[in-house]
Amino acid sequence: MKNDVLESIGLNKNEVLIYRTLLGHGEMIASDISKESGLTRTNTYMILKSLTGKSVVEEIDRKKKLIYRLAPPQKLVEWAEIKKREQEDNLRELYAFMPILSGAYNLSLNKPGIKYFEGIEGFKLIYDDILKQQGEVLIMASEFDRSRKEINNFLDEHIIKQASLGIKVRALIPKEDYVNLNYIEEAKNLLVQVRILPLEIFSLHSQILIYSDKVVLSSFKNQLISTSIYNKDIAQTFKVIFGLLWDKSLSEHVEILKQVASG
């Protein structure tokens, strides 16, 4: 039997060496296997444990002495099939993780273009990228921004990190139950300036985040999905739109503050 056949199914060189040793001698004790293979006793015991764990070598307790012998060759096939299924499962997991991995790779290169992120881990990558950038952050919040507990916890911690780095934020947010005078004051202390708009006229289903030369749209309603656009001209366009909304929102914001204070 060629060594490369055994190695191709996943056995390492020392496992192949002991397998071939047993193949040529039948039943053996560990010390004899060590002498015949040229491996140390410690390595021999470790490899025998690995091979018995794969069920391709059998361990027999005979008169208080451990004897080792090969399992029927079919066990090699069975173990190779298990290994194959594990590799297929790992490959499927890798494919599922590719959007996050690709997004992180592109962010690390700071390449212009469009990146797609999925799930909480992808969302965290985007917000962590904010900490590396310079300049103001602009947010147009959706009515679903605070609909997920895991997102709330992450955002609360992240805002504190931003403030510690001196990152200023302006946020347009819809009037929700959590929005009150205390919320606005706490946000201000963390360098977040808030303008509140009535939900009936500012009901976004996706959050829009603008920073540096990037625009990120994130949907929280069902599946958590984010799309990051890295383009200077597109970012400039969104900044102009945000600025217009910010200026026009002052009267609505003041009116809501009066209602909150009186309520």
Automatic annotation (TrEMBL):
Domain of life: Bacteria
Alphabetical list of Pfam families matching this protein: TrmB
Domain Transcription regulator TrmB N-terminal: 6-73
Record PANTHER family: HTH-TYPE TRANSCRIPTIONAL REGULATOR TRMBL2
Protein's recorded name: Transcription regulator TrmB N-terminal domain-containing protein
Lineage summary: Bacteria, Bacteria division CPR2
